[in-house]
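Dear Dr. H.,

I hope your travels went smoothly. While you were away I took the liberty of generating a structure for the chain from your last submission, since the lab meeting agenda had it listed for discussion. I wanted you to have the full record in hand beforehand rather than looking at slides cold. The sequence, exactly as received, is reproduced here:
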Amino acid sequence: MRSEREVENIDSFYHLSRQENAEQFCQGTACFVARHLNPDRWSEAVHGEQRVYCLGNCFVAPASSSDAVRPKMESHCRESIALGAILDGPCRSFAAYSAHGGYQALEQALDQARDELIETIELSGLRGRGGAGFPTGKKWRAVAEHRVPEKFVIANADEGDPGAYIDRYLIEDIPHRLIEAMAIAGYTVGSAKGYIYLRKEYPQASAVMKQALAEAHSEGVLGDQILRKNFTFDIELVVGRGSYVCGEETALLNSIEGHRPEVRLRPPYPSEHGLFHKPTLISNVETLANVPWIVRHGGEAFRSMGFSNSHGTKVLSLNSLFCSPGLYEVEFGISVLEIAEKLGGGLRTGRPIKGVIIGGPLAGIVPPHQFGTPLGFEELARIGASVGHGGVIAFDEHTSIAELVHHVFDFGAFESCGKCTPCRLGSREIEQMFRRIVETGCTSARERDGLLEITSALEMTSLCGLGTGLAEFAKSMLRYYAEELESCFR
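The corresponding predicted structure, in token form, is as follows:
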């Protein structure tokens, strides 16, 4: 049993451990670039007692927890997989979900061989929708191959990337689909227990999911002898306490176990040595949301959508600077220009777009001359950008590059778990460097060498995507906005 001191040390890591029910104001990147739209709200955010970096209301940024509006949702693909059942409104109850074909995929899966289901997921080409785009079928197979009595399935619902809010609405509007997907995954890899790790900033999602889990038990799709088959699976909801790094899968494992949520060294990987040292399958919410559709329609049908090595659809979260912010489901292959101009309708300020961050803020920026780049994992990576969670944050001349760099590195330094030195110390050093630039207009020319050295260290030696993402962001600034940055060093 942990001492009070140990518990206090762990709690001190989380910045929302003692959160009250007072109204919160967000200072995430989507709110930062839109701060001129509502300066009073932005002032409330930066002068508040607690830092909150995303409330999932990026479509009305600068955002508050009191915002009670639902985003616009549209499908721009041959068949809507993620948003289809909720385009016209929430589908929260068991009855409503069943009316849309809910739990048919689970019933179908329980009559199939596990290897057959894994082959279907592999054939689909489904890749992770929350970060690196790792092939989902490989994860499933890696966990399934461990012949041990206890394994776990985890839904990573700690959607912490400021600017992304798709997972929030997949939970709030259609919670039973996540339950069904996790049950299918549990059956396939041989697990009887699942966890949903949900960020504290989504209280409505928590309430909806608790109700859905209770319904699932009463309807016999969770618990013992699911659908009268020889399969037992249960799900526990774990609500985080405020930490961006808990979106990293190994820090998330430590958090569930009650340890300080620092990143773990890899290997071993969670598929071999995960939660409580057992093989563990971890996927984010949108990734899992594709599973019931794939089981029902087949891997080939999913693979036929998209392009290149990016198959299926992706939901994009457009920020409030667009004329038409909201959630848009698209097939991979659509260009950044089409996303910004056709879907988003350009900027509401009427100003030219200065750049777009996709899957950020810990990702490279796409400058206007690269807007012809198609939405695809490898295609965006070639220009130093990322698909990530699919948050699309556009900004204009109201935000200088120096201000943006300061904001992103302040966020990174605050959220660092401190496990590795470049991230713990280097991110704060760059933040302070650009604080001086924002306050005085420039800094010493020799500090540019320091920026380059720290960026290289972050890229080469960071243990997780927080440090490497900061490096990608800095590299894109240096590559695409060199002229504006050069004026900062004299």
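Two observations you may find useful: The chain has a mean pLDDT of 94. The radius of gyration is 22 Å.

With kind regards,
E. W.
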